Amino acid sequence: MRFSCIINEKLSDFREEEELMFESLFQWLLGAGRELAVVIISMVPLVELRGAVPLGVTIGMPEATLIPLAVLGNMIPIPFLLFFGEKILDWVCTLRPLTKFATAYKNKLLAKTDQVTKYARIGLFLFVAIPLPGTGAWSGALIATLLKMPKTKALFSILCGVITAGIIMLIASHSVLGVVHLF
Question: Of 22, 78, 112, 131, which one has the fewest beta carbons inside 10 Å?
Answer without folding.
Answer: 22
